[in-house]
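Memo to structure team: turn this sequence into structure tokens by end of day. - J.P.
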Amino acid sequence: MPVFFQQQINEFTRLGIWKIEETEDFFKGNVPVHREVTHPHKRVQHLAGRFLLQFLFPDFPYALIQVADTRKPFLEDERFHFSISHCGDFAAAIVSTKNHVGIDIEIPVPTIGRIRNKFLTGEEQQIFSLEQEAHEFDKLTILWSAKEAVYKWYGLGSVDFKKHIRLKSWNSTDEIECYFELNATHLAIHYKDLKQVMLAWIVKD
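Reply from structure team:
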């Protein structure tokens, strides 16, 4: 079973990453398809992400998943709050019976340096001691993933990553302090450098 990473966040919340090594038929045998995904690999990613929901909470009700206009999947009765992300051969999910959540995984690539000024302010680049060296793409990927996790936690769309999501500091070796302007909320974004992928997540009402 290719569970790449999993963590019990608290008594209500679990997250996991699945390394996709199975065929599409494996996932189709376990997960109902909720929307048409035409690209074969993206379809497998989609199914793997959904598969993780029941892996984390076996009583997760696949059949009740709806998709908002912002493309965020949700349960109308909010029995579970959840978020899904995928990239390459990895799918990630976080599920909570109590808290709103957001998750993102990214594969670090040097080309992220080309868009640094599109999602980070000059102040943020100073706070996180970013220079122009190519080797900093790991750090840039973590910061991008952190902002993606905020976007997914919020779930209502229309978010300007540079204007609305302000990263303030590393609070510790695995946490970033953030201020989200759209609802004036202070957030703690947790992250892990898993070498093959960068992971960021948020758990907050």
